[in-house]
Amino acid sequence: MAKQLIMYTNDAVEATFSDGSKIFLAPCATEYVVQQGNHAQGIMTTKHRTIYTTSTLLPRIRSILTFRNLYAQQPFLVPALVDSDQCYQSTGTASHVRWSPNISLPTISIDDPTQTWSWISLCGRARIDISQCRQIVYITHPLQVSRVLTKQTNDIDNDIPTKYIHIFAPVRRCFSSHRLPNYLSKFVNKCLQLIEQLSNNQNSFDIDDNDDGEWNFQLPLSLPSSSCPQAHRHRLHHEMMFEADIHILQTTVVTYRLEYENPISIEAFITDENNQYLMDYFITCDIQSSFYKYYSIKDKECRLLTLSEHALPPHNERVLQIIRFMSNMRQRLISMTRRVQERPCWLQEDIVLDNHTINDTTEQLGLSSLENEIDDEDNIYRQTSIVNIGHFKYFLDNHIQIKFSNGFILYMTSEQVHSCQMNPSINFQCRITDKKKQTTIDVFDGITEPGCYEQYISAAIDWCMWVWNEKRTEEQRNLANSIQEELFRLKLFSNMNQIKDYQQSTTINPPITNQIEYYSPDDIKQILERTAQFTRTQSS
């Protein structure tokens, strides 16, 4: 089991194990990197495709995928890698699931402190675990079996199932009650209303079902298991989340969750050993204050306490450590002035631009050299698309173009971009075009007097700084690779010189050519005569 699991805001996962090894999982979970060793002995990294995981890494990858599917936006469901109770097998497409609560009564588990409620219907089963603090919702996606009914022409006219179309096995996922995904919000809110009603009168099952659509929801599409179109942008190294932030931090005891917007909050919850039942839950009252709400669930009762960073309960080391960590993270969120949240790779789809629209806009703007280059797709250095925000482009000559979803287009020349990257607090110029009104405005004091264009200027600053950090990181990596290559060349050259010196020192007459010379019989006779003459001279 992993000693520490971290999920970032783009659903990438970093897992640290007790032996010191790490696994970095891509946001789409299609590939990962295993890092082993240390900086003293050397670090070895190997890259793998998830669907081709070896048997030695399979237990670790399964635990990482279980953690990822619990908190990620979209699950990664592969039968060979996910446990049998969380796999996805299909010969069709299970897209919609419907519960009819009037068909059968919900089952109430008295011994379950988390209050489990189940609805049985004709097409499936849903299990919703709602803790007594009513802050966390565990959703088990339903098991759905669809059947093809064939009409029998016998005397007894019955519908007999003859074929199974598809099976959707459950996937357990965890959500905050105030931050439910769109496809589940109406359904869960309706269930919460029903639970509130049944908690007052368990024998009553009267509920207004005027809006039939509230008892339906569409299942999220599973991620592709084979490959990712944005795989070349995955940064699967120890600095892969250079600009992203931690979303989930899970240790062997505590799980922390950080939300950066609507509203900003920090949560910490403790579950049992099997990660099934909630035991303790902490949440910030207000990110600006030092007070926390503490839900303690013991003996099937939930008690709410308000704690302060400056007045903690004595003799409770676990609560003390949790509040201290949440306090440090709270100060980090408060002091964070800017952040660039990287979106998951499956949402970064390239926008197909309308060339006619761009040409029309260029003609309206006049003969500026900047606008004449905006449609040069071959000179783009980096681009990304963010849903409901816009299309961001950074060109090789360092000028940028941002096409917002509401029709505004922002341009900055390379000189303006360089000035912004050197000091984002200094005023710079930019040009903003409103396509709807067909007007162009030059903003000269983008920092001190942004006016109504503050959000566009802020986005431009974030985009410039993000690309600058990307460039700096790539340059550092390229420089490190060049240094390593040069050191290897020097080491190899030194070794070859040492070998050559050693050969020369141990050889009397180093051969000039590869030709082997033999002594003739006359040469041998002359050598023997000289030797005999030398011997006679010495003896006399």
From TrEMBL:
Residues 380-466 form the C5orf34-like C-terminal domain. Pfam families: C5orf34-like_N (PF15025), C5orf34_C (PF15016). It comes from Adineta steineri. This is DUF4524 domain-containing protein. Residues 6-69 form the C5orf34-like N-terminal domain.
